[in-house]
Structures are given as C-alpha cells and as structure tokens.
C-alpha cells in the first residue's frame, strides 16, 4: 500500500511538471489556435490559409505573429473595417470583435506557423519601373525585399497576391482604409496612395513585389 501511494505521488509530480513545462504549454497553445482558426477563419481563408479571391480574403498562412495580432486588434477596435463600402473589412471586424485578447494571441501564433504560400508573379506591369518606384517610396518602411518591418508596423507585402495588393491600394485611395485618425500607419499609406500614383504605377509596383515572392 505504501509503495502504491508513492507511485501515485510520483506520477502526479511528473504530470504537474509536464503541464508546467514550456513545451507542453506551447503545444496546448498551438492546439487552441488551430481550433480557433477552424471556428473563425477557415470558411474564408481556407484550410491552408491560402485565401479566396471570390471572397476577397487574402492568404494569411505564415504571416508574422505580430502583424496578425496588430491587424486583428485594429479590426476589433474599429480602426479598420468600419467603412460602409468595405464589406470584407466589415466581416473581419465582426469576427475580430468576438475574439478575446488571448484568442487573438493564440490564433496569431497558429497562423504564423502555417506554411506560407508564395503568390504568383504579376506580368501586368513593368518590374524594373516598379523596382525604382518601390525603392524610392516604399522600401524605407517595407524594406527592400518587401518583407515588412515590425518596428514600423509595415506588413510583408511579398506575402500577398497581385489582386489583394491592388485591392488594398485602391482602398487607401478611396478612403476605405487609412481614414481613421487613430490608424496612424494607415494614414501614412493613404497619403502615399493619394500622392499622384497612377494605375500604371500600381501595376509596376505590384509586378515588382510579386516577383520578390518567387525569389
């Protein structure tokens, strides 16, 4: 009986150590993130996070954890997705509002760990012209390889397909993004987008950015 009791104590101690270990907590966090993803994201962004053009949902697999957290927070707080004509943005805002802070953190970790899906290159513009424009106007924040910069809260543009880049640039131009004064980063992008950038310029920039994803 004494030996049996000691075995129980030993087993209990080992279980407590396992639960308290970082590896166990990390695995539990990932499992919860996958469950949240299935419940709130998979219908639009797909099982692999590849996105859906018809639903205007971008690919999100492999996006940086900090960026996913930041954008979900902006949707939740009404700094993004509040424009009446931005239907996909409103849908994202509605979803973000039902997520708790810990849900967002766990979900962001899960999304960042998904296998990235490089977008197809766009041949609708001149890559060399786009490179010049990008270096002069975008690289300071988004870096020369368009992978973004956490310090500037700038997204990794090379992760997104041509249709999404064009769609978002258009939203900055028409006020669907960047109009909220609390969205300082969006306001900066809106100023750039409305600074005489032509459709030809946009095509060139996108051709350059999507070429970087292949490299």
> So, the CATH homologous superfamily of the largest domain?
Cytochrome c-like domain
CATH topology heading of the largest domain: Cytochrome Bc1 Complex, Chain D, domain 2
Main pleated sheet = none
CA distance, first residue to last residue: 67 Å
As a percent range, the share of strand residues is under 5%
| Helical stretch tally | 11
What is the CATH first-level class name of the largest domain?
Mainly Alpha
Computed CA radius of gyration, to the nearest angstrom: 21 Å
The count of domains is: 2
Mean pLDDT: 87
Sequence of secondary-structure elements: HHHHHHHHHHH
Tell me which CATH architecture of the largest domain applies here: Orthogonal Bundle
Morphology call: globular
The stretches of 5 or more residues where confidence is low (pLDDT under 50) are 11-25
Number of β-strand runs: 0
Secondary structure: helix percent: 55-70%
Q: Which class do the helix and strand fractions yield? A: mainly alpha
Structural notes for this entry:
The protein is mostly helical and 215 residues long. The chain has two domains: 27-117, Orthogonal Bundle (Cytochrome Bc1 Complex, Chain D, domain 2); 119-215, Orthogonal Bundle (Cytochrome Bc1 Complex, Chain D, domain 2), CATH 1.10.760.10. The chain is built from eleven helices and no strands. It has helices at residues 2-20, 22-40, 42-45, 65-77, 87-96, 101-112, 127-137, 139-142, 162-174, 184-193, 199-214. It is globular and about 45 Å long. Mean pLDDT is 87; it is low at 11-25.
């Amino acid at each position: 009986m004494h030996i049996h009791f000691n075995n129980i104590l030993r087993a209990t101690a080992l279980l407590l150590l396992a639960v308290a270990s970082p590896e166990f907590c990390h695995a539990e966090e990932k499992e919860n993130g996958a469950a949240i993803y299935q419940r709130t994201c998979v219908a639009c962004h797909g099982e692999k996070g590849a996105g859906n053009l018809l639903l205007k949902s971008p690919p999100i697999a492999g996006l940086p954890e900090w960026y996913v957290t930041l954008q979900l927070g902006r949707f939740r707080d009404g700094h993004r997705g509040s424009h009446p004509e931005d239907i996909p943005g409103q849908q994202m805002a509605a979803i973000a509002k039902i997520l708790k802070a810990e849900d967002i953190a766990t979900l962001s970790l899960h999304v960042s760990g998904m296998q990235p899906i490089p977008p197809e290159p766009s041949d609708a513009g001149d890559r060399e012209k786009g490179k010049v424009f990008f270096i002069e106007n975008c690289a300071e924040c988004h870096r020369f390889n368009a992978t973004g910069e956490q310090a500037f809260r700038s997204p990794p543009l090379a992760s997104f397909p041509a249709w999404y880049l064009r769609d978002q640039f258009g939203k900055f131009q028409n006020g669907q993004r960047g109009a909220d004064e609390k969205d300082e980063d969006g306001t900066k992008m809106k100023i750039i987008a409305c600074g005489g950038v032509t459709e030809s310029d946009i095509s060139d920039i996108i051709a350059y950015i999507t070429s970087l994803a292949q490299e």
